[in-house]
Amino acid sequence: MILLKEKNVFVITGPCGVGKSTTSGRLAQTLDKSCHINADLIYEMVVGGYLFLWQEVLKYIVLMADENTVRMRDGKRPPQEVMVDRAIEVFNEFKDKKN
Q1: Confidence class of residue 38 from pLDDT cuts 50, 70 and 90?
Q2: Which of 61, 83, 88, 96 has the fewest CB atoms within 10 Å distance of its CB?
Q3: What is the number of other CB atoms lying within 10 angstroms of the CB of residue 76?
């Protein structure tokens, strides 16, 4: 169990196939009074732009894996969710970011 003395919001991001959903779900299970909100479910609900209200408590985590792992995990998705070339494009966007 992770003991935290302050309130935290963790944003776990990264290209597809690196384990964001798995890691987020497991993290939420280890914390008292927590929830796991899958951003894919709320992505299209945002209509007026993004505003981060919790910047003082926001913990931003980027998960990465090697390209072969991303390809392998993407290939295991249900057919309608496989990203193929787009998975590698997003992987490279995250890999090339400095911050």
Answers
A1: confident
A2: 96
A3: 9
